[in-house]
UniProtKB/TrEMBL annotation:
Membrane protein topology class: Lipid-anchor
UniProt name for this protein: DnaJ homolog subfamily A member 4 isoform X3
Coiled coil start-end: none
Principal location listed in the UniProt entry: membrane
Gene from which the chain derives: DNAJA4
Residue ranges annotated for the J domain, each copy included: 32-94
CR-type zinc finger span: 148-232
Cited Pfam families: DnaJ (PF00226), DnaJ_C (PF01556), DnaJ_CXXCXGXG (PF00684)
Subcellular locations according to the entry: Membrane
Residue span of region Disordered: 1-27
Length: 329
């Protein structure tokens, strides 16, 4: 029997289940990692991926140099919650269970490795052979994904300085950093307990990780010794019909340039805006329609405008006993 005050109707997937039929909230020991990503403990893997994608792009050190600790926490939360086994351990025992799951100490991956693997840039070894990837989020509508669209996007990227040809200064002025011996990293030994020491590797403060230094008076006037300069680039992004929220579009070799390294890539990540009428589920479009009690009892005829401006008509003559689903093609 139809319920008074309106009835929910769905168009699209016949297996659609209204949100009000969902089960109760998932019970977990603690919610810190979920809170960091801004999702509920019952969040699906796709919801966790989407949350990480948005936060990682927002708080990446290249965009927010002062948010390094927040970026690290976001990466740790995603590393745990994206792994079914680690997530199960965390749900049952919290962060302490994760720390005790290995050798008694947390074994988190590098935040940059997690970021690069997520956005298709490989890990640390790939970064050592190639310049940085430029990752940019492109906002698109559901209509854009349904019909396809071409958008122009302005990006900033590093290019080799033409004046010094990527040397950073006058020829012969570059010398190996005496502090880190050209490694770009410094090793510090820290005692963490009786008979226990920890080896910490940090970026060399003297050369800022370059492994070399240039006398200020000999530095290139164009790039100030950085070897690269920032340049604006306009690219055309072709969003094909049927692409999905979170899908990546790759522009090979169009990313940051660094001396003696292969240029990185430009990676465009599609970010779909919420639609006022339709929700996407796989290849289907789902919509809810509220009808009056009289329409539920006597039947109705409704027109639906699609994302490509077609008009579809749905009709119902029978009296439904529960929410009814229509599949239209």
């Amino acid at each position: 029997m139809a319920r008074g005050g309106g009835q929910n109707w769905s168009s699209g997937n016949p297996d659609y289940r209204p949100e009000e039929q969902a089960t109760g909230e998932k019970m977990v020991k603690e919610t810190q990692y979920y809170d960091i990503l801004g999702v509920k403990p019952s969040a699906s893997p796709e919801e966790i991926k989407k949350a990480y994608r948005k936060l990682a792009l927002k708080y990446h050190p290249d965009k927010n140099p002062d948010e390094g600790e927040k970026f690290k926490l976001i990466s740790q939360a995603y590393e745990v919650l994206s792994d079914p086994k680690k997530r199960d351990i965390y749900d049952q025992g919290g962060e302490q269970a994760i720390k005790e799951g290995g050798s008694g100490s947390p074994s988190f991956s590098s935040p940059m490795d997690i970021f690069d693997m997520f956005f298709g840039g490989g890990g640390r070894m790939a970064r050592e052979r190639r310049g940085k990837n430029v990752v940019h989020q492109l906002s698109v509508t559901l209509e854009d994904l349904y019909n396809g669209v071409t958008k122009k996007l302005a990006l900033q990227k590093n290019v080799i300085c033409e004046k010094c040809e990527g040397v950073g200064g006058k020829k012969g002025s570059v010398e190996k950093c005496p502090v880190c011996k050209g490694r770009g990293m410094q090793i510090h030994i820290q005692q963490i307990g009786p008979g226990m020491v920890q080896q910490i590797q940090t970026v060399c403060i003297e050369c800022k990780g370059q492994g070399e230094r240039i006398n200020p008076k000999d530095r290139c006037e164009s790039c100030s010794g950085a070897k690269v300069i920032r340049e604006k680039k306009i690219i055309e992004v072709h969003v094909e019909k049927g692409m999905k929220d979170g899908q990546k579009i790759l522009f090979h070799g169009e990313g940051d340039q660094e001396p003696e390294l292969e240029p990185g890539d430009v990676i465009i990540v599609l970010d779909q805006k919420d639609h006022s009428v339709f929700q996407r589920r796989g290849h289907d479009l789902i919509m809810k329609m509220k009808i009056q009690l009289s329409e539920a009892l006597c039947g109705f005829k409704k027109m639906i405008k699609t994302l490509d401006d077609r008009v579809l008509i749905i009709t119902s003559k029978s009296v439904p006993s529960s929410p009814e689903a229509f599949r239209l093609s």
